[in-house]
């Protein structure tokens, strides 16, 4: 172990936990002074792509009357500006501290809505299943009155559970703070910080049947836990992402395919860029992180610049991340992978340029190093300094590209064409990653 490298890691951790704060005066009805001081922390200089240019400060400049303590969906909407339909354009600097559990299915009067409350009167799942059964309808996309009613039902749920976030916003959680049954939509809202929150069960009441998705069709869901679109300078830090007691593995099977009610944990799409995701914990989920909207060459080219460091990917199945177009720096993450349904870790998509350095892969039975990469139409990925712990053998270095190429055609190239410069410190050697990530990644692991 090189002292200089380890020292750099300690510097990085110190900067992470003691980031600079803006001057403020705590409002009498706001969060406690110590909590507000923490909530005004900004992204450390040099900490990934979100530190490019002016950096990311979120709501650090908020006036005292723009510091809010929220305990319900209605509180959260009010703190973000007052009208969920227009809050995405509210650029007033604001700090929002979440206390307890905020449920996206809660009505303004506090009572919880169910899927039946949000369904269009002309929609029902039994009728949908009967109408679009491939044995009856065929393998073509659903159309007609029932599909239109499902789409209207989705619009109803979107108005309820998709919470729109405006620019210059910080949302942080007190110990145990949870956002359940909702999507934080960061769309056209640059300079946003999201920290110390547990995101739980952002379920879709009305999944779509897509018979042309794959060889036998798939059910697809609408809602991510955090969605970043058309935005820059976003820092997502020390959060936990989970499906809680409602995993997709427990859902029924319809048309021979799992009825999947969840989408991504943290998707970065639609020309978004300059995002840093650090010290997050992703646990027990299927689809995690999609970077890039589609394979169409267009506005995403030159965008989608994302840094992922010191995250824990724990018993998760795919998109860790899946990358299109962007320069994505993936370093010092711990991949703790297991399960028969594991698909792949890092998806190498069209014109992607991922740089994968000093990550540690703990692999369960049946998962081999040659399955950690997946070719989604890309040509090259840089991998260096990564280690694998598999097959009850001693941990060892692994060349991810060589392992992939040994069993797959066509080969992937080993040079993504760029070298990251925005890092708060030198990456620690891969064997040390579990010691750094395990105790610190996830919500509730920051000092108050």
Automatic annotation (TrEMBL):
An example molecular function term from Gene Ontology annotations: lyase activity
Ranges for domain Pectate lyase: 118-367
Any matching Pfam family: Pectate_lyase_4
SMART domains on file: Amb_all
Location of the protein in the cell: Secreted
Keywords: Carbohydrate metabolism, Lyase, Polysaccharide degradation, Secreted, Signal
Name this polypeptide is given: Pectate lyase
Organism phylogeny: Bacteria, Bacillati, Actinomycetota, Actinomycetes, Micromonosporales
């Amino acid at each position: 172990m090189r002292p200089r490298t380890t020292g750099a890691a300690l510097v990085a951790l110190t900067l992470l936990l003691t980031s600079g704060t803006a001057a403020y005066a705590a409002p009498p009805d706001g969060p406690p002074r110590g909590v507000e001081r923490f909530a005004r922390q900004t992204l450390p200089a040099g900490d990934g792509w979100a530190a490019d240019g002016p950096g990311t400060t979120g709501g650090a400049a908020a006036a005292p009357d723009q510091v809010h303590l929220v305990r319900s969906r209605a509180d959260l909407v009010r703190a973000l500006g007052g009208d969920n339909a227009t809050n995405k354009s509210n650029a007033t600097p604001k700090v929002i501290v979440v206390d307890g559990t905020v449920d996206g299915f809660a009505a303004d009067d506090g009572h919880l809505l169910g899927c039946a409350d949000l369904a269009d009167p002309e929609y029902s799942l039994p009728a949908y299943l009967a109408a679009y059964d491939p044995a009856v309808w065929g393998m073509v996309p659903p159309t007609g009155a029932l599909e239109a009613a499902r789409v209207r039902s989705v619009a109803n749920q979107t108005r309820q559970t998709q919470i729109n976030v405006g620019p210059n916003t910080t949302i942080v959680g007190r110990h145990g703070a949870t956002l359940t049954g909702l999507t934080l939509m960061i769309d056209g809202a640059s300079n946003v910080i999201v920290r110390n929150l547990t995101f739980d069960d952002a379920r879709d009441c009305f999944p779509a049947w897509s018979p042309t998705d794959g060889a036998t069709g798939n059910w697809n869901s609408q809602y991510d836990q955090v969605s970043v679109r058309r935005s820059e300078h976003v820092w997502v830090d020390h959060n936990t992402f989970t499906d809680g007691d409602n995993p997709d593995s427990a859902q029924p099977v319809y048309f021979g395919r799992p009825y999947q009610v969840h989408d991504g944990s943290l998707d970065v799409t639609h020309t978004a860029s300059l995002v840093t995701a650090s010290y997050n914990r992703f646990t027990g989920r299927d689809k995690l992180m999609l970077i890039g909207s589609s394979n169409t060459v267009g506005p995403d080219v030159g965008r989608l610049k994302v840094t992922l460091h010191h995250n824990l990917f724990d018993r998760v199945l795919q998109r860790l991340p899946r990358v299109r177009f962007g320069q994505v720096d993936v370093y010092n993450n711990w991949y703790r992978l297991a399960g028969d349904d594991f698909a792949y870790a890092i998806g190498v998509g069209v014109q992607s340029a991922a740089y994968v350095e000093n990550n540690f892969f703990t692999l369960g039975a049946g998962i081999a190093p040659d399955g950690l990469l997946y070719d989604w139409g890309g040509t090259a990925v840089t991998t260096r300094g990564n280690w694998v712990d598999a097959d009850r053998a001693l941990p060892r270095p692994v060349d991810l590209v060589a392992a992939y190429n040994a069993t797959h055609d066509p080969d992937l190239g080993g040079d993504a064409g760029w070298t990251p410069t925005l890092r708060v410190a030198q990456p620690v050697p891969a064997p040390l990653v579990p010691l750094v990530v395990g105790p610190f990644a996830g919500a509730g692991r920051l000092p108050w």
